[in-house]
Amino acid sequence: MPKSLPVIDVSAPICCAPLSAEPIEEDAALELALRLKALADPVRVRLLSILLTAQAGEVCTCDLAPAVSLTEATVSHHLTQLRRAGLVESRRQGMNVYHHARTDSLEALRQVLMPNCC
User: Is 89 helix (H, G, I), strand (E, B) or coil?
Assistant: First the structure.
């Protein structure tokens, strides 16, 4: 039986030293891996790119689905994974749900991965 990963809160931006600063602790490595796992899908990368380049700053699920040629249910699933990883925030307005990228979380992730930190 496969070993399941522990459930931890990754909704806040990651906060640990860059990988090149020192060997990463086990808990921090798990937090980083869970965020990277959420990004390890081409559809999620495309969705994040659409959100980051949206002129209005946010995009409705109903507009994201045709942009990636998937159903709204499938797009909603991918956005849920990104939201659980703390990379996207969503808000409901009437019957629609609008999403925007959490640039603070993405910047924190970039800083952890940055090889020339110090």
Answer: strand
Comparing CA positions, the residue from 5, 68, 61 lying closest to residue 33 is 5
Task: Answer whether 2's CB lies under 8 Å from 97's CB.
Answer: no
Tell me the whole-structure pTM to 2 decimals.
0.81
Per-residue pLDDT reduced to its tens digit, 16-61: 667 777 888 888 888 888 889 999 999 999 999 999 999 998 999 9
* CA 28 remoteness from chain centre: 16
Contact 40, 32 (CB under 8 A): no
In the chain, the domains with their CATH numbers are 26-113 (1.10.10.10)
